[in-house]
Predict the structure.
Amino acid sequence: MAEFGSVFSLEGQVAVVTGAARGIGRGIAHALAGAGAQIVAVSRSPAETLAADLQRRGRSCHLVPADLGDPEQVETVIPRAVAAAGRVDILVNNAGTIARGRALDVSAGDWHQVLQVNLHAVFRLCQAAAKEMLPRGHGKIINIASLMSFQGGILVSPYAASKGAVGQLTKALANEWAPHGINVNAIVPGYIATDLTRPLVEDATRNPAILARIPAGRWGRPEDLGGAAVFLASAASDYVHGILLAVDGGWLAR
């Protein structure tokens, strides 16, 4: 039996993190690197500062620029990650987008863009990573779901639809790939202060209402998700399949 601490080690592992340049993705990339993983940072935004930060900590970071809103670019991500780092042991599907507004006003373009980034790209990346992992009989896939995987939210119908689907996709893929040594799970962030949620943080009405429901009494920070990510990426979670792990300050319990 492995020493307890060693089951959380990611030494020698390659982790692909999408949306890694900022916010939750950046926090997760730092956490996985801290546990020993080599990072492949996939991002539409420049991620050089992340790479420099990790390199200062003695961890390698390969950059794979890609816009997951473009289906053709999605198809290149895993092959480019393998070319850069040799293989993929861990995939974190973090990249996401949102369109806020009344359902009556959602355009076809906004609907398809949100579904492309938040759902279609996630599925295709899961497929590609699993094909790479299956011959080795081992791999960890972590999808980033949402409170909207359980709730409808307010004025975010495309986002809620996409994240509800991510939750079900996580379970479906776990059922299919668990017998082959691939763990598929999801993290459900609560209200985390990032660029994506800045409109809510700055909303004088919504922000107090949100805080009033969070038992922890504060917005989450990207680094709050690091422990869950390391757990789901490591041997500590080898018998964990198809869960949606909430890291939400107690929001869903209220």
The mean pLDDT is 96. Strands lie at 14-18, 38-43, 61-65, 90-93, 139-144, 182-189, 244-247.
